Amino acid sequence: MSPIDRRMLEQMLSRSKGVPRGTPCPRCGYELTGLSAEGRCPECGSPVAAALRPDHLVYSSPDYVAKLHMGAFLVVLSLAILIVHFIGGTFFAFAGRIGGAGGAALFSIVGFANGILALIGWWLLSSPDPGKAGVDRGATSRRVLRVLLSVRIAILAFSLVLGFVTVSPWSMPLMLMVTGVDQIVFLAAFVTSLVYLKTLAGRMPGGAIEREVDVVLKFGIVVLVLVVAVVGLAIMGMIGGLGVIVGVCLMIPTLLMMLILFVLYIFLLDRTRQALKEVRSRM
Ligand SMILES: [Zn+2]
User: Fold this and answer.
1) Predicted pLDDT at 4
2) What's the CA gap between 206 and 279, in Å, rounded?
């Protein structure tokens, strides 16, 4: 027989509580205790919500979010070019048209330029937050990612130089070694990029992207373990006979899962790009 609905009372109570004690305005330091989260700071007019979620990208520097957005756009673009490049290469290889030196050179130039495009994109996407709030979530994965990107840039430059140097007896094994190191760095950068994207997603509205990163990360680890198993078995196969059979049986599902992982990764980055665009429109 109570005159006030219980749920309505709870809502009123939670609303009256407002900003918890000891929460200063991130811009001017004014004590915001008790104010509504939807309101604005009485001193400087900045949104009260910024004090409750100071790491939220909406309250970051617009230049910083613009850099992230540009980075995400370039990464998605480079991934799209990668698909066209791969399909084109496969098609021409089957059609037997890539035999010409000109076509092969063009093919590798496009691949190289696209690699640089991806690196520029990731470099922008991993820009440091000039954040006034002093919150540095995801700093470790961001720094590790930049170190790995730097190593890849060095490897790209090195292989370019190696391509111009006249053939010496040890240029082939050196090239193979560089390629091997590059592949390990690539895989490490792939995993690190996902860990970093998760921290970035945690700073955006809604939790959808954060959950999506989790799925891609877990699936990616499964695929990675399978790839290591297949490569390991391939090496063992050179010694014993059984490894070859198991390796071949594992290879096709592994390749399929790699393809799925690649598609999921592109979708995830495109979702991130869209979310950053949305954040910018709300700034
Ligand atoms: Zn203020």
Assistant:
1) 56
2) 11
CA distance 109 to 113: 6
**Rounded to an integer, what distance in angstroms lies between the CA atom of residue 180 and that of residue 193?**
20
Give per-residue pLDDT as tens, 151-162. Answer: 988 888 887 777
d(CA 263, CA 244): 29
What is the CA(262)–ligand 1 centre distance, in A? Answer: 45
Question: How many angstroms separate the alpha carbon of residue 17 from the centre of ligand 1?
Answer: 19
Q: What is the pLDDT at residue 53?
A: 75
Q: How many CB atoms lie within 10 A of CB 201?
A: 23
171 pLDDT more than 60: yes
Give me ligand 1 centre to Cα 16, in Å.
20
How many angstroms separate the alpha carbon of residue 34 from the centre of ligand 1? 14
- Note the pTM of the prediction, 2 decimals: 0.79
Query: Tens of pLDDT along 136-147?
Result: 666 889 999 999
From the CA of 65, how far away is ligand 1's center (Å)?
22
C-alpha of residue 46 to centroid of ligand 1, in Å: 6
Alpha carbon of 64 to ligand 1 centroid (Å)? 21
CA of 48 to the centre of ligand 1 (A): 8
Structure tokens at 11: 């809502």
Ligand 1 geometric centre to CA of 40 (Å): 8
What number of other Cβ atoms are within 10 A of residue 153's Cβ? Answer: 15
**Separation CA 143–CA 192 (nearest Å):** 10
- Cα(283) to ligand 1 centroid in Å equals 17
Which pLDDT score is estimated for 13?
47
pLDDT of 100:
59
Kindly tell me if the per-residue pLDDT of 102 is higher than 80: no
